[in-house]
Amino acid sequence: MAQRQFMEHAISDWMRGTGPDSEIVISSRIRVARNLCGVPFPLLATNQQSAEVLSQLAAVIEQPEMSGFHTSFHRWNLAELSDLEKQVLVEKHLISPTLVNESRNGAVILSEDESISIMLNEEDHLRIQCLYPGLQIREAWEQASRIDDVFEAHVDYAFDEKRGYLTSCPTNVGTGIRASVMMHLPALVMTKQINRILQAVTQVGLAVRGIYGEGSEAIGNLFQVSNQITLGQSEAEIIDSLYSVVKQIIGHEKAAREQLLENNRMRLTDRICRSYGILKHAAIMDSKEAAQRLSDIRLGSDLNILNHLDPSDFNELLVMTQPGFLQHIYKKSLSTEERDMYRARLIRDKLSKSKTTNGGA
């Protein structure tokens, strides 16, 4: 697959599928952090040392065992990509801002459908990321574990019998895994229950962040729920704990949606239809408003208030309306005001191709 094909499509092929509870859970992700034994971690490694790490890890992808994943893998060194191309990969959640801004001899290896992303020389020497649609956190872990086993068979990991896998950040020491689930929770926000729910989540050792992880804002009613503890628990315990809490949040969101339909159907329908009308006709749209109104119409689709709207359109527009992707689509640098104009145009064009009808009025 040519490099441009990874850049041209806003959503990855794996996101076009559906998974369990996909009306609320957008995606499940496992990220595994590993470092090589006897080599300084990336923040302290010299240019030569990081280059050697890159060569050693990249060679693993060529091993026969990787054919068992039934996909081709494609590697790009970050130094060979333009700033805009790197921004697009960040907006697609395929690489991290850390790999872009702080890495030395950084690279990314992507599977054909982009469900597997392997970052080299990020905060740690190796970061394996596996993504699945819907609530499939256990499936994502099984995939990531298989890839991890292949690497461990060919390189020596930094490992301590007492502390587990050693990582640059102390909060990742132990299993070295971060399990996270991206959730769309508009009804809990509308019914003002979200703060209570999220406070309860943090009290059981989980973290709640925005769409782009730590430090990002929860725009578009999207929340990323992940484990905070990696030391003292097994991988299975981490996965099971997250899965259990996410199922409870799903239950609360479904109850809140039923409450809105029962008590405020007309107001809810009006809100969804207004957002749809504004998205179809607005001449200017900033990214925050776009995310909120897209969230409204995604809810309308899930509740059959708006019919024939493909939920994947919501995922696609969330990426396509980001600054980097907008500039990539229109092939030019855009000021903030120009981005707002082109964002509105892009949304209008996308929605005009759908056959959405109002099924709830």
TrEMBL record:
InterPro entries: Arg_Kinase, ATP-guanido_PTrfase, ATP-guanido_PTrfase_AS, ATP-guanido_PTrfase_cat, Gln_synth/guanido_kin_cat_dom. Its EC number is 2.7.14.1. It catalyses: L-arginyl-[protein] + ATP = N(omega)-phospho-L-arginyl-[protein] + ADP + H(+). GO terms for biological process: phosphocreatine biosynthetic process. It comes from the Bacteria. Keywords: Allosteric enzyme, ATP-binding, Kinase, Nucleotide-binding, Transferase. Coiled coil: none annotated. Appears to be allosterically activated by the binding of pArg-containing polypeptides to the pArg-binding pocket localized in the C-terminal domain of McsB. One of its GO terms (cellular component) is extracellular space. A motif (RDXXRA motif of the pArg binding pocket involved in allosteric regulation) lies at residues 339-344. Residues 24-256 form the Phosphagen kinase C-terminal domain. Pfam families: ATP-gua_Ptrans (PF00217). The keyword Cell membrane does not apply. ATP binds at residues 27-31, 93, 127, 178-182, 209-214. One of its GO terms (molecular function) is ATP binding. PANTHER family: ARGININE KINASE 1-RELATED, ARGININE OR CREATINE KINASE. Catalyzes the specific phosphorylation of arginine residues in proteins. Belongs to the ATP:guanido phosphotransferase family. This is Protein-arginine kinase. It comes from Paenibacillus dendritiformis C454. The gene is mcsB.
